[in-house]
Amino acid sequence: MMARPVVALLTDFGLQDHYVGTMKGVVLSVCSDAALVDITHHIPPQDVAWGALELAAAYEYFPGGTVFVAVVDPGVGSSRRGIAAEAGGYYFVAPDNGVLTQVFAQTPPTLVVDLQERKFARHTISRTFEGRDRFAPAAGWLARGAALAVLGPAISDWVTIQLRQPRHTGDGLVGEVMRVDRFGNLITNITRERSSRLNLIAARVEVADASVPIVGTYAEAPAGELCALFGSSGYLEVALNGGSAAERLGVGRGGVVAVRALP
Amino acid sequence: MMARPVVALLTDFGLQDHYVGTMKGVVLSVCSDAALVDITHHIPPQDVAWGALELAAAYEYFPGGTVFVAVVDPGVGSSRRGIAAEAGGYYFVAPDNGVLTQVFAQTPPTLVVDLQERKFARHTISRTFEGRDRFAPAAGWLARGAALAVLGPAISDWVTIQLRQPRHTGDGLVGEVMRVDRFGNLITNITRERSSRLNLIAARVEVADASVPIVGTYAEAPAGELCALFGSSGYLEVALNGGSAAERLGVGRGGVVAVRALP
Amino acid sequence: MMARPVVALLTDFGLQDHYVGTMKGVVLSVCSDAALVDITHHIPPQDVAWGALELAAAYEYFPGGTVFVAVVDPGVGSSRRGIAAEAGGYYFVAPDNGVLTQVFAQTPPTLVVDLQERKFARHTISRTFEGRDRFAPAAGWLARGAALAVLGPAISDWVTIQLRQPRHTGDGLVGEVMRVDRFGNLITNITRERSSRLNLIAARVEVADASVPIVGTYAEAPAGELCALFGSSGYLEVALNGGSAAERLGVGRGGVVAVRALP
After folding, report:
1. Minimum CA–CA partner of B27 in chain C
2. Nearest to A79 by CA among A159, A136, A171
3. Mean pLDDT of all residues belonging to chain C
4. Which of A263, A262, A241, A258 is nearest to A205 (CA)?
5. Which residues contact A97 (CB under 8 A, 6 or more apart)?
6. A42 with C15: Cβ contact below 8 A
7. pLDDT category, B193, cuts 50, 70, 90?
8. Span A19-47, mean pLDDT?
9. Which helix (H) or strand (E) holds B29?
10. CA distance B130 to chain C (A)
């Protein structure tokens, strides 16, 4: 018996409206057996880069064959394409605007197709809600076992966005805050890999007017103290044990974070 | 093989409390096979009209046979009835307070019953949480295949609410904002059908002190500019390309929106 | 045929990040057949007591055998243990920090184990996200039918927290607000059982500078009036018919609520 197909959704739709539920209705109309999972729907509106990073942080924890639908889509209704892709044993359905950039950077796709085949979309495609009329049905068909290649012609010129990268300095790295999570942790674009050339013993992380040590986990910092650590997705984050680093420091997305290592 | 039954929920319960999860536990206790989908739980507290419109915007995108549970219920614990209905090949379970008004306007029900049969409810029915004790089990039984008629006697005097309708003016329509969505789009009660007698070429939509053109999709408006369009549910909405029309205009629910067409 | 296994999640992770979705991906990677249900993810950050009460309010409404994963975990990454337990025909997976206190008070566990067996965790365990790497896989294995005893050695010294209890006064009880729900209802720690010795006929509930009657359901209070009642989980709550008692009274978590009964 095949494992039950999984369709996982990531959007900037929020949950206050019927939009996400309606997309799920469409998926189940095509593939009633699918298990539906929300990654998040609280990507800041139209923030493609944020969506790209969140998707990349999550997808590898899903069963092989999972179909991801990622709709952060400032260009809905324009001529930008819709695409579907296979990478690392997973499927992805999204507008062709770079929201798959970070996934593809980690796992190059084996096939990317332009969603031109109308019979895998709804009969009428709203120009303001392609998530419902184009992306959800395509995901449903993939979950149901349709071959990726039947959804449209292969392409090789998909859109990639430039995700901001930290830069090396004389004694370390300067990066920035890419995301503030629910706990007020400041998650940067500085990865453990990028830091591997640095001597992080006794390194300090500087953010706003604070200079904080790098620890192994939140609990190593005294209660009420700031610390920095490599978090669950491999990014350096600044945290406050028992509180919100974002509030304490008054720092948000785009804030500068520097690592100063020992020479 | 029968398709897996779907139970879709719409409430004003929010997600901060255990209420929605508990209802789902009850549904699964009756019908462990059900696929559970949230339409939204962020209907403004006790706003039956808003709930009625959101449900109507979503239900037709679900598989035939889906059971919808719609609980926006200012009269919980009072003598208002609970009802279940069949319309358009779907099932609906709700308090009898008009939350099904717009669905029934689009698709007249074939049968509506008063949920009197206690054996399809929980043994004890909380007077403050009928969603858990009466509506969720009824939905579970319908999902499991119980006939609608066994849930209680047929009725024909269900409650209907008056949803505010736009009115015709000399050169157009005057309606109002029924809902503000996550993106700050102002969704009005003006439908494409109601507008069909108007010559919309070069029509203008007036809201607050702005006069905006009608376009086909958001992307047709220049970035940072307001526009109006018929959205994914068929209602005229006022949008800001790349931002929130609600914020820009300072307009919210109940705000007046006029369409002025060419003669 | 066995009923489909259910895994129900309660965390303080919120929904803005990928964290909950990622945990679900891990559960499905172990047990693709599981039905996933959210109880809530909006427990106030690191508020173990609040989580303990919400879990206890919900679990009995789920099918027997349901696996609950409760992650409110200020000590993530520290030496605190992870545990799994069986109580009342249900399974629980959680950090050993007292988040199961109220469930165990209602239903003493038959077996509690320390999650030491690494083969039921992910290969690498992040020190900041044990929900993903330790608790979610353990829940998946239990859902898949693994015996509780294989997850680790039995323990009897699990952590319990002191949940604040109301105290008896000359003519009644003095308790406090434990939770404010979405509707602004003030949910106290005063239970119907604790009140059973009181003559509640004509009793008054005092909160801030208001004195309100005890009614059977919200609808018994005139619109715009405050009332008190025993809610759906058995706790006394203060409500405002058609509005938010929390806003009206300016009272939140920890606010004092007194019941003054007739002698």
Report:
1. C62
2. A159
3. 94
4. A258
5. A48, A72, A73, A74, A75, A80, A159, A161
6. yes
7. confident
8. 97
9. helix B19-30
10. 9
